[in-house]
Amino acid sequence: MFTDLHSHVLPAIDDGARALADSLAMLDLLRQLGFSVVHATPHQKVGFFVPTREAIDQAHRAVTAAQSADGPVLRLGAENMWDELFLERSQSQKIPGYRDPIVESETPKAFLFELPVALLPPKIEERLFAIRRNGPLPVMAHPERYTGLWNDRPRYERLGQHAALMVDLAALDGAHGAKECKTARWLVEEGLAHAAASDLHQPADARAVASGIAWIRKRKGDTAVTQLLGDGPRQILNGELPI
């Protein structure tokens, strides 16, 4: 079964699910696609969404209580924008990471981050190296979106030495644009993608996610689907960079 490391299924927390009914519908759709574990990763983005730990935990409890017994296990994380809040947290090693809310003492071994789309921050590789050396594994959300990386295979390769590159499944179907689709497919075909995730924001997104899975299966086979959606994510949660 698959593990989803990027979703916005918690209700009324960010730009994802608006209400509990949306959350339950999204989780059921992910279950139908083969996901047995789903990590909700609400945005942590200054000026837009910075939900508190308490608000996230409360939303998680509400969804878990209403979910059917055969639904996927719902765990937590965060999508950390590379901004002043992220940099401050990185200095104190308090970046919100992947966690099981039932096991409060567990120290996250990996965390999800995103970059500004049009303007890459300076010295990303050096910062990622420093974070990785002293702490959890960085996981880059949707690397296909960053215009400064397009057509720069050496840069992708360097970044992939310090962070897991996790493409959006919907991007493989063209949901986010032609160039993003081409880049996401190239990352998968060249073996530079370490994992793939739904980045589900609303129930309607599930169609493109399903098409993305189908594209991987058609182009790379079942082994690649298992690696990108199953084995790779589980290695990432253990703090290991998939090879």
CATH names the topology as TIM Barrel
Largest sheet: 6 strands, parallel
SS summary, helix count: 8
Low-confidence stretches: none
Corresponding CATH superfamily: Metal-dependent hydrolases
How many beta-strand runs?
Answer: 9
Structurally, the number of domains stands at 1
Helix % is 25-40%
Order of strands across the widest beta sheet?
A: 3-5-6-7-8-9
Q: State Rg.
A: 16 Å
Task: Describe this entry's structure for a reader.
The longest helix is centred in the C-terminal third of the chain and has 16 residues, at 222-237. With 243 residues, this protein is α/β, with parallel strands linked by helices. It has helices at 20-32, 53-66, 84-92, 124-134, 153-159, 178-189, 206-220, 222-237; strands spanning 2-4, 35-40, 43-44, 73-76, 79-81, 110-114, 137-141, 164-168, 195-197. The strands form 2 sheets. It has a 6-stranded parallel sheet with strand order 3-5-6-7-8-9. It has a 3-stranded parallel sheet with strand order 1-2-4. The chain starts with a strand and ends in a 6-residue tail after the last helix. Helix 7 crosses helix 8. The chain contains 8 helices and 9 strands. It is globular and about 45 Å long. The protein has a single domain (2-237), classed as Metal-dependent hydrolases (TIM Barrel, Alpha-Beta Barrel).
